[in-house]
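Enoyl-CoA hydratase-related protein: structure, please.
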Amino acid sequence: MADELVHYEVQRGIATITLDSPHNRNALSAQLRRELRDHLTAAAKDDQVRVVVLTHTGSVFCSGMDLKEAAGASAGDQGVNEFPAILEQLWTSPKPVVAALRGPARAGGVGIVAACDISIAANEATFAFSEVRIGVVPAVISVTVLPRLLPRQAHELFLTGEAFNAQRAVEIGLLNSAVPVDGVDAEVRRYTDMLALGAPNALAATKKMLQQERSTNLGEVFADMLKLSARHFGGPEGQEGITAFKEKRKPSWVPAED
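Here you go.
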């Protein structure tokens, strides 16, 4: 649709979700939030989708909440109330999500970057937790950002609102990779090709395992992890993977090459 702000396309098992609202720097307007949620839901439900790539048009990945919509609205009517659901969709998606940035991210946009499993940016991209500079608190995005960042860096950047570059974003854990802008597509493809080698249920279970809190009782942790491991060793994917290894072929879930 010509008037949509978020596009959705599936090719080779890759669902590409593109933010396309350059007139307001891909701000999280009500329409963009709604369409993004719908496309994330579609990707999660589609058995043909193996990996999700979240990208953008225009010079900015995402500038955060739409401040024009926020102006004059009461606390109960603020669009930010809908934002946790989007971050949770990204964080808990059973399909790995890769963010591809060719430009800056600010505030809520950085929360989205942190919520994705793998995030890649052009060297020219910059980031900032700019909330305090307009009198608000980076509260919602802290849920996805703080698990990624080194604590000392988080205090500095949340409190000062200072912009930082892609290389520093890699160093503090926000990004996986920073590359020249003309190398973003190749870097995304490198990651999606690797992710597609993983079995769908195993990927979903591994992602869930990585995010769960663990008991301080080492025996309990080993018992839980043993159950998880044995279940997948004995499950259909595990048996197919073992058989494929023995037969020196690719498992059935690996997409056919172009």
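Notes: The chain has a mean pLDDT of 93.
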